[in-house]
Protein: SnoaL-like protein
Organism: Bradyrhizobium daqingense
Amino acid sequence: MTKGCKVTTDNIDFNHLLRSNLERVFNERDDDKRRAAVAELFVEDPIMYEPANIVRGQSEISRVAGELLEQFGPTFRFVPDGVAVGHHGLGRLAWHGGPERGPVAVTGADVALVEGGKISRLWVLLNPQ
């Protein structure tokens, strides 16, 4: 790695895009705001790969994110760990999740394929407990 290595290439701000996805999609409890964020951050026909599920389309990604928040309770949040990195259209952001002021319940990373400045494919990778 060279000194002064840039975090973004190809005019993609991976950190902004992946942190926006975490905050505005996966931490957003308001359905309308979440749907608007998905429309802004994802391509028209995105695919999200979860460990046990493949989710297709903006509306389904929004629905799954909302159900996840409902399942984990009203104070659950995902928090980024460090800065997202990426190049050549592929970015990664590590994160942890749990109740506010509570113990960490899950850790993992989002890996995104970015096309035209938007997420086209998203892999949700969970760390072993």
In short: Strands lie at 42-50, 53-56, 76-87, 90-99, 106-115, 118-126.
